[in-house]
Write a structure and sequence with these properties.
- Helices cover 45% and strands 9% of the residues.
- The chain is mainly alpha-helical.
- The strands form 4 sheets. Strands 1-4-7 form a 3-stranded parallel β-sheet, covered by helices on one side. A 3-stranded parallel β-sheet has the order 8-9-10, covered by helices on one side.
- Helix 13 links the parallel strand 9 and strand 10.
- The longest helix has 18 residues.
- It is globular and about 80 Å long.
- The site of iron/sulfur cluster has 11 residues, from helix 3.
């Protein structure tokens, strides 16, 4: 935020503009320190995630990057301001080792590179990622909370949340112990810990007795581990050579953006190239509400459905609403969009938790069988979009459709303008007589629970981690 809108920050806070620090935090002298620490390259403080009750869905990931910046200057993107020069950063093997030693290993690797394919030596980067344990088919065995916390105690870490974490783990662990003798020994130690003044020291003192029991009964199941270039790879740069390299990795999914309908051929070629190299699961960022038209969004989503069927792969689309990076709210409406149509897309996506799943039946149901149906859905009352099965079942949708289809183009445009108001305003503005009947539908409120039938739109395992910066 400081880099994107320093003037606004200075104005809002009253501090001098020159005191708002912008850019990457690579040099601590800007805050008066005298050392050579590059804050930007320090490992993250993963302990933050352990101190809150909320379970962060991507918590079992290493967060890292191998490159910074992007040489492109897409006008909607914050990266050219945040990271104006492309460069390779610190060694990924060292980054992972440092995290392992400090916090314990993570299952997956989330790389935040903005345009990794710009790197000149992709092969050695992929070699490093394979050496770090993320080659194709990579497996992971969770060392378990006990081993990780004990490692941290030995490193000198002391914190209440570590004690609570290991205590909760041991509480659940007792049911795994099959030997009565071992269970008795285990319980003696665990019960004794309750009165210990220094819990961590008590655990360290009893490690010799406890550790063999944990080792005997802890799960050593091998789990698949994945690597995710979360910000996406540049579809324009994908070719046979670099895909051959990326395919050596446990990439899941491969993320490619499809931000402009004019890049349709380039995008399709990139997907086909990825498919030829064995990639089966693709996640696709789709910018909308920018310079595009609603039909461009529909077409991009439809192209994905066609590619899925043609190639037998799964592309999950993530439509992402454009908001100018200089704005402090997200109310912007693109020149070819209106409030109601943007809200309709968000209503569809709310049902699907932001994802457009790979199946064609889902797509045609949610977005319409053709452009006419799509445009009709954009003007449909929000509740009828969100609780589709319910309102189709009781005939409300059909009644609304019959009324809507009787309107001429001028009336349809006027209706769209009126229903672009917020619902609270809609009640208070004068309603034209010829639209009165259909406008009543926009005040309907669904009062039941979310229907089970709507849940089927939600794909359970689509990895909906959005890019942090685009
Ligand atoms: S959208 Fe992607 S390619 Fe474009 S400037 Fe941003 S990071 Fe680079």
């Amino acid at each position: 935020m400081a880099s994107l809108m320093p003037d606004k920050i200075a104005e809002a806070t009253g501090i001098e503009r020159s005191h708002v620090l912008t850019g990457l935090f690579t040099d601590t002298s800007v805050v008066g320190d005298d050392n050579d620490i590059n804050v930007d390259e320090l490992p993250l403080d993963y302990a933050i995630l352990e101190q809150v009750d909320y379970k962060y869905p991507a918590g079992d990931n290493y967060f890292a990057y191998t490159t910074r910046g992007c040489p492109n200057h897409c006008s909607f993107c914050a990266v050219p301001i945040l990271e104006p020069s492309f460069h390779v950063t610190n060694n990924i093997i060292d980054q992972i080792r440092t995290i392992d030693e400090k916090y314990g290993p993570k299952q997956h690797l989330l790389l935040l590179d903005n345009n990794v394919l710009n790197t000149t030596d992709l092969k050695s980067l992929v070699d490093d990622l394979c050496a770090a344990g993320f080659g194709q088919g990579a497996k992971y065995t969770d060392p378990g909370v006990y081993n990780i916390v004990m490692m941290r105690y030995k490193n000198g870490d002391r914190a209440d949340f570590l004690d609570k974490k290991i205590a909760a783990y041991l509480e659940g662990f007792k049911k795994r112990i099959k030997s009565a003798e071992m269970l008795e020994k285990f319980l003696q130690i665990v019960i004794g810990a309750e009165d210990a003044e220094d819990y961590a020291q008590y655990m360290l003192d009893h490690e010799e007795e406890l550790s063999p029991i944990i080792e005997k009964y802890r799960s050593k199941a091998k789990k698949a581990r994945y690597l995710d270039f979360n910000q996406g790879v540049d579809g324009r740069k994908i070719n046979e050579e670099n895909m051959e390299q990326l395919a050596r990795l446990a990439i899941h999914p491969l993320r490619i953006a499809f931000d402009d309908i004019h890049l349709k051929d380039v995008y399709c070629k990139a997907v086909r190239t990825a498919h030829r190299h064995g990639i089966k699961e693709i996640s696709n960022y789709i910018l909308f509400n920018y310079k595009d038209k609603p039909e461009d969004l529909y077409e991009r989503l439809r192209v994905n459905i066609e590619l899925n069927e043609e190639l037998g792969i799964q592309i999950f689309s993530f439509p992402m609403k454009y908001s100018p990076i200089s704005e402090t709210d997200r109310t912007y409406i693109g020149a070819n969009w209106c409030k109601k149509s943007v809200r309709a897309i968000s209503a569809i996506l709310q049902v699907t938790k932001g994802v457009v799943a790979a199946g064609s039946s889902f797509f045609y149901k949610a977005f319409g069988n053709n452009l006419d149906e799509f445009y009709e859905i954009l003007v449909m009352p929000r509740e009828l979009i969100m609780f589709r099965s319910h309102f189709e079942g009781d005939g409300t949708t059909a009644t609304w459709q019959a009324l809507y289809r009787k309107l001429n183009d001028e009336q349809k445009n006027r209706l769209m303008e009126i229903v672009s108001h917020n619902m609270s305003e809609l009640r208070n503005i004068p309603w034209p007589d010829d639209l009165r009947e259909i406008l009543e539908f926009y005040l309907i409120k669904y009062s039941g629970k979310t229907e089970h039938t709507e849940e089927r739109y939600v794909h359970a395992n689509c990895g909906p981690q959005r890019p942090l910066v685009r």
